[in-house]
């Protein structure tokens, strides 16, 4: 197994975040079908993008949205270098909630603690 790249300094290996971009295309309907506790895929945007984002998908591939830009700034490069993360839905609200507050997730960067300490 390939070693993980060094984890970005002064960044949390586990954190909660809101999911952005849930109102575009069919994403609102995808969020409607999400359940609290559901696992989500965490994938970086294409490395050819000027600012690759960090996208969240249901296990079947449906696009849910993306992480806030201030997280994408440090997490996307780490993921593109071979890091991995997983997420789960912590809070799912209905369409009456503001779009940027509809979905809260918890992200866990796989083995980031070991990579940060060199172990």
CATH secondary-structure class: Alpha Beta
Q: Tell me the structural class.
A: alpha+beta
**Elements, N to C (H/E):** EHEEEHEEH
CATH architecture type: 2-Layer Sandwich
Distance, first to last CA: 14 Å
List unreliable stretches of 5+ residues: 112-119
Overall 3D shape: globular
How many domains in all? 1
> Main sheet, how many strands, which sense, barrel?
6 strands, antiparallel
Provide the spatial order of strands within the biggest beta sheet: 1-6-5-2-3-4
Task: Predict the CATH topology.
Answer: Alpha-Beta Plaits
Number of strands: 6
Summed up, the helix count is: 3
What's the pLDDT, averaged over the residues? 88
Rg value? 14 Å
Which percent band covers the strand fraction?
25-35%
> Which bin fits the share of residues in helices?
10-25%
Description:
The protein is of the alpha+beta class. It has a single domain (about 15-115), classed as Alpha-Beta Plaits (2-Layer Sandwich). Helices cover about 20% and strands about 30% of the residues. It has 3 helices and 6 strands, in the order βαβββαββα. The protein has helices at about 25-35, 70-80, 110-115; strands spanning about 15-20, 40-45, 55, 65, 85-90, 105-110. A 6-stranded antiparallel β-sheet has the order 1-6-5-2-3-4. The longest helix is centred in the middle third of the chain and has 12 residues, at about 70-80. The radius of gyration is 14 Å and the shape is globular. The two termini are about 15 Å apart. About 25% of the residues are buried.
